Amino acid sequence: MKKPEILCIGGSAGSYHLILDLLATIPTQFQIPLVVIIHRNERYDSKIEENLDKRIALRVKVAEDKEAIQAGTIYFAPAGYHLLIEPDFTFSLDISAPLNFCRPAIDVTFETAAEAYQDLCCGILLSGANQDGAKGLMRIHEFGGNCLVQDPVEAEISTMPQAALTLWPAHPIYTYNELKKIIIQMTYSN
Length: 190
Known about the structure:
Blueprint: E1 6-11, H1 16-24, E2 34-38, H2 48-55, E3 59-62, E4 73-76, E5 82-85, E6 91-94, H3 106-117, E7 121-125, H4 134-142, E8 146-150, H5 159-167, E9 173-174, H6 176-188
Parallel strand pairs: 1-2, 1-7, 2-4, 3-4, 7-8, 8-9
Antiparallel strand pairs: 5-6
């Protein structure tokens, strides 16, 4: 697997604690921009980013409209907006209709990341209760990027990873612990 220039992680039901644990284990030397898309309700102020920023060494923040994507930063898609990645490696926020009943939708971010970063994009799809992320992961594959799927057998809710495998059965499947090791390895690969 070649070292990506962006890493996108998508998850929904059953992935929240996995994502928090995963981010807490990333080494301080990690210099790849990391974008997290979690389905969450905009009516609730979760303060995920603020709490994580105090607990881990890397910078954690909500992605902002027109913000340049920086290495070594963990960005979260804001609740109530689709998060797009532009060809000039900036974010844009969009309030178009929910996709797969979600805004932010994982597919939107994965697809636009694939188009901007092409074969240097990596997407990871975790546990979730709908099919969001499957088409976006396929788009990353079409551009030659790396696609990683949490093993549906292990996922708390298998619908999301299974949808990716139904769309393209050859996606590599990994346990959560294997995914953690792969991300740590990205830190030290050339």
